């Protein structure tokens, strides 16, 4: 579920709040903890010339410049996760064992233009 | 599709697969969560993102590499003593179904825990010794012929919980078998009274569980990258 967006959302590429509730997806009887977690997602524009400040690669900066000259022919770069962090989930598996497992790349910490 | 057959939406199936699960668990007799797992879970939650990333393939609490910690409940049964010495107080088949372990997982730690109802037993009395032996066994509870015990301990003091490191016995680093069968024997000796009367400790026997720490495939890839 995505909480209601702030009143004046920034149009630039940045992490957006997204809370994943395990009970929303009907997993609450086998996931022990957490009940949910803040996963976030990336959204926003990579416009010229700001892309240079938005965690962008050199190529993305070039692409925004070309897009500004030829918007129809070349799209903007994409706003994607560039730094993620893991979470641990405690759950019962298919044999009723108690499992604590580390999952990589589950939380978006930073976004960038690529 | 398999997903439809299991009543799951394709998205849910894909998500479960990405979490390393073949289908949605539906626990029938959920065991209480061992305190050690709560401690590890809460400790990791307090770690800042970058440090959590660094420790994703290590279990600091147990000081071993690992990304998955599982606690398996014992599915064995008590066996008749059948020993002529009469000193045997308890003989139990411990059976752990390890089929939940996935291909490519590497074992880094195996710890057996025996728990006793501490409140009902206050012995052993002075001069009394409890002897505990653990053997590899067949799934039917028969000890492997010609094999000595995996471990042998003597106790003059009984604690609520006894922990035994079986990593060496289970050859940490290798892929464990699909199940593990062990034969547990507790006998008593010394002290006044008949051996039978010395067996209070085994009556206090409550439960046993096996904790395994493994390195999942994601850690192998990280290792090669590093």
How is the topology of this model organized?
The complex is a heterodimer of chains A (114) and B (226).
Chain A: E1 14-16, E2 19-21, E3 31-33, E4 36-38, E5 41-43, H1 58-69, E6 79-92, E7 98-113
Chain B: H1 2-5, H2 10-18, H3 35-45, H4 49-54, E1 58-59, E2 64-65, E3 68-73, E4 77-78, E5 88-97, E6 106-116, E7 129-136, E8 151-155, E9 161-165, E10 179-189, H5 200-203, E11 205-215, H6 217-225
Antiparallel strand pairs in B: 1-2, 3-11, 4-5, 5-10, 6-9, 6-11, 7-8, 7-10
Overall number of strands of chain B: 11
> How much of the residues of chain B is beta strand, in percent?
25-35%
Write down the overall mean pLDDT of chain A: 88
Helix content, binned percent of chain A? 10-25%
The oligomeric status of these chains comes to heterodimer
Report the sheet with the most strands of chain A, covering strand number, pairing sense and barrel closure.
3 strands, antiparallel
Gyration radius of chain A (Cα, Å) is 18 Å
Quote the beta fraction of chain A.
35-45%
Q: Which of globular, elongated, flat, extended, rod-shaped describes the shape of chain A?
A: elongated
Instruction: Count helical runs of chain B.
Output: 6
Radius of gyration of chain B: 21 Å
Label the overall shape of chain B. Answer: globular
Q: Strand order within the widest sheet of chain A?
A: 3-6-7
Q: So how many helices of chain A?
A: 1
Portion of residues within helices of chain B: 10-25%
Q: Biggest interface and which pair forms it?
A: A-B, 30 and 41 residues
Descriptors:
heterodimer; A: 114 residues; mainly beta; three-stranded antiparallel β-sheet; two-stranded antiparallel ribbon; 1 helix; B: 226 residues; alpha+beta; five-stranded antiparallel β-sheet; four-stranded antiparallel β-sheet; 6 helices; 19% helix; globular
